[in-house]
Amino acid sequence: MSFLRNTWYVALWSQDLEAGKLVSRTFLNEPIVMFRREDGSPAAIADACAHRFAPLSMGKIVHGDRVRCPYHALEFDGSGACVHNPHGNGRIPPAMKVRSYPLHEKHSLIWIWMGDKEADPALIPDFRLLDPDSGRLVSKRDWILMEASWELITDNLLDLSHTAVVHEGILGSEHTIKANLTIEQKGTTVFVGRSVPNVPAPGLYDLLYKRDGGQVDLWADMRWDVPGCMINDTGVTEPGAPRAEGTGFFGMHFLTPETEKTTYYLFAAVRQNPRSWGEPLDTEIQRQVSDLRRIAFQEQDQGIIRAQQNVMHTAPYPLKYCLLEIDVGPVRYKRIMDGLVRQEQEELQAGTGRAA
Amino acid sequence: MTWQAARVAQVREEAVGIRSLELVPAGGSDFAPFAPGAHVELQLGPSLIRPYSLVNTVGWDGTYRVAVKLEPTSRGGSRRVHELREGEEIAVRPPRNNFPLDPGAKHHLLLAGGIGITPILGMARHLAASGGSFELGYFGRSRSEMAFLDELSGASLRARTALHVGLEPPAVRDVLADMLARQPRGTHVYVCGPSPFMTLARELVAGHPDLALHLEYFSNDAAMPDQQADGFRVVLGRSGRSFEIPPDRTIVEVLAENGIVVPTSCEQGVCGTCQTGVISGRPEHRDLFLSDEEHAAGDTMLICVSRSLDRELVLDL
């Protein structure tokens, strides 16, 4: 299956693109180097010199705005144009340029547009909860490179029944496996609701709520946007009480394919209705939230999804999922993505879009 | 129409095997108001969507109240309702009304069999409060299994309500025939109850061309206003072969029995494997695979769970 190109992917957290440094990533199989210009604006160009294809990310930033190739010292600006040739008469051949990618910095993230259509920042989904000036308590803005396809990770996130099994003790328990599920779609946004009444608070929730292992109503409602941007509105409250009286967090999840089999997975938790226990406990709680979520994703989710992917790629016979009720979310997002990719491919073949 | 979160504010035992739920909005917007005869759909599981008539018509307090009988043969709907506890959240779809009172009617005859009392009681309350002319006949197996008897024997309804308890089918026929014969010309007759009760009422009213009949179907689980209670017929557009789909079987099952194997996987209306084109007839969608727009368009359906609003459905098979 082809990747969707004309869409905003999350490239990295704003904090992870430091001034004066080159950061290399591969998105959708394309090596890219990113840096900040002198005015702080981010830039992304192909990470291969147009001359002999040396990775520009092995070079350095010169004159504030330019990347100098580590091999023959050709210099490229943020638009991908070669702006200095130190050899011979200094003439720059018209073909001496590299592809550049539109970037947009918003919600403490740097977004990248991989397609050839116009990159409209208005298409970036709303993640204002992450805005630096939101005044909210945010866990570490973290990321891992996951050895799993973006599709398998999305399947995981839109079917949170696995939390009762894979993250038992942290995010769920045997009591939370059966849940009330709802699904709704508005345009290309999918909402998957999940709630479990009157169960012992699972570890991470108990840590944030009453710290007594008492009974709670648990909710975990996922919002999904193209191509892999999710908010998990989740928390616990007294059985029967309104959610506003409980506590929880908005789990932010962003998936950007590196390759068909590997994915950049960015995440952070924005607390909702945080309870204060005073210092040093509050700081400790924030650290634990960050740590436990990283363990949940990097060790627990990756452990099972990597193994699952391995089974799927080595199976000597054709595989077809046998799905359950819990798969309503994964099925819905997949239909939307398949439709968008098909449409994009058809436009390319019809010549209405420029070749990728 | 979009789903709205609702919280179960109160669960009440109305009779043996009958529970009523009071639903309140769980955050977000208020519930939409409704007229007597309306029903709401409750999402009781991912592919478990059931319509239930609304009872609380008069002096509306912004809640939805439904009454549900636990059916021993329940395919999930009534069983799930009876498992709900106060404080639990479910999704509800705004009211629709296929069973409205006719504002032009001079007199109304309301007939309820068993749990069919739910829309009928809402109508009676409304008519009593607004000074409408009506009488109500309520048929049940035993008093302990009949809901809302306190209210029906209260001051505003007692004089116009006739309870018929424990009658054998021939006696039900006699009572109904009698009631119909006494109606003034132009009376509107509203009937909700189990399938045999509805069939009997339909047959008897047919003998009175001056009466107008309104039916609210309900089947296995509960009030099923839209569904073909007695099953429906599926015609295969390509071969012309046709099959009766009884109320307790799915289209996929019946076709498979007849050697027509439609590929399926989840058989729960989730995966979309059995998606089939609809040439004519209106599907009654029960899946979660198709979007609201696709449900509304009605030109495709998942035949593992979805059924028919019309007597006949022609499929592109």
From TrEMBL, chain A:
InterPro entries: Cholesterol_7-desaturase, Rieske_2Fe-2S, Rieske_2Fe-2S_sf, VanA_C_cat
Keyword tags: 2Fe-2S, Iron, Iron-sulfur, Metal-binding, Oxidoreductase
Rieske domain ranges (all copies): 8-112
GO terms for MF: 2 iron, 2 sulfur cluster binding; metal ion binding; oxidoreductase activity
GO CC term (a single one): cytoplasm
Domain of life: Bacteria
PANTHER family noted in UniProt: CHLOROPHYLLIDE A OXYGENASE, CHLOROPLASTIC (PTHR21266:SF19), IRON-SULFUR DOMAIN CONTAINING PROTEIN (PTHR21266)
Name this polypeptide is given: Rieske 2Fe-2S domain-containing protein
Automatic annotation (TrEMBL), chain B:
UniProt-listed InterPro entries: 2Fe-2S_ferredoxin-like_sf, 2Fe-2S_ferredoxin-type, 2Fe2S_fd_BS, Beta-grasp_dom_sf, DmmA-like_N, FAD-bd_FR_type, FNR_nucleotide-bd, MRET
Domain 2Fe-2S ferredoxin-type: from-to ranges: 232-317
Keywords from the UniProt entry: 2Fe-2S, Flavoprotein, FMN, Iron, Iron-sulfur, Metal-binding, Oxidoreductase
Keyword Iron-sulfur: yes
UniProt-listed PROSITE patterns: 2FE2S_FER_1, 2FE2S_FER_2, FAD_FR
Cofactor(s) essential for the protein: FMN
Domain FAD-binding FR-type as annotated: residue spans: 1-102
A single GO molecular function term of this UniProt record: 2 iron, 2 sulfur cluster binding
Domain of life according to the entry: Bacteria
Pfam family of the protein (one): Fer2
Protein's name according to its UniProt entry: Oxidoreductase
Organism from which the protein derives: Enterovirga aerilata
Lineage of origin: Bacteria, Pseudomonadati, Pseudomonadota, Alphaproteobacteria, Hyphomicrobiales
